[in-house]
Amino acid sequence: MPSRYARHPRTRTAAATLTATLAALTSLTLLGAPPAQAAPPTPVTAATARTYLAELTVKAEGSSDGYSRDKFPHWITQSGTCNTREVVLKRDGKNVTTGSDCAASSGSWYSEYDGATWTAPADVDIDHVVPLSEAWKSGASTWTTARRQSFANDLTRPQLIAVTDNVNQSKGDQDPAEWMPPRTAYACTYLRMYVQVKHYYDLSVDSAEKSAIQSRLSAC
Asked: Which of 57, 65, 67, 137 is the most exposed place for a label (fewest CB within 10 A)?
């Protein structure tokens, strides 16, 4: 006669499944789980961004006289045959494959600005969170070419992000008083990125720009 304490077959099956799952997870941990999709460097907190904003010099926006994108050399070689654009495309995408020249040939890219997903690299632009022209008018006109090059290819600060091409083009050289990502859920992150970059490079803000950022950051 079977013991009244004997396990029900279903219980044994569930226990075996759980054991196998735990073993698989342990094995995956030991082998090293696949890394999560990368993204731009995490920006400072909203509180820090508010502090940084208060420290920025407020002055009227400078002239665009003499400005040219060529004065901010990009995209420069980062390693091997990979330039900055290619590095960001690979960093911000999923399942990105590249050729021997490092150019992306396939993958998918989620644009934080508008919530769209793209599978063709040609549909994706690399946005300078603080636009090059905006930087020029807020202090970069006095920089050396080497410093402008570092700014335009900065992978350490949250200055570069892969986004939908026509959304990036609609932004142009506008600051947050004039343009914000259409996906409002990304507004706080975008402002934190923008302020951190301006603060790091000691760029100024005009009064309308500061007011707009200040107002929006207060809700973050």
From this structure: 65
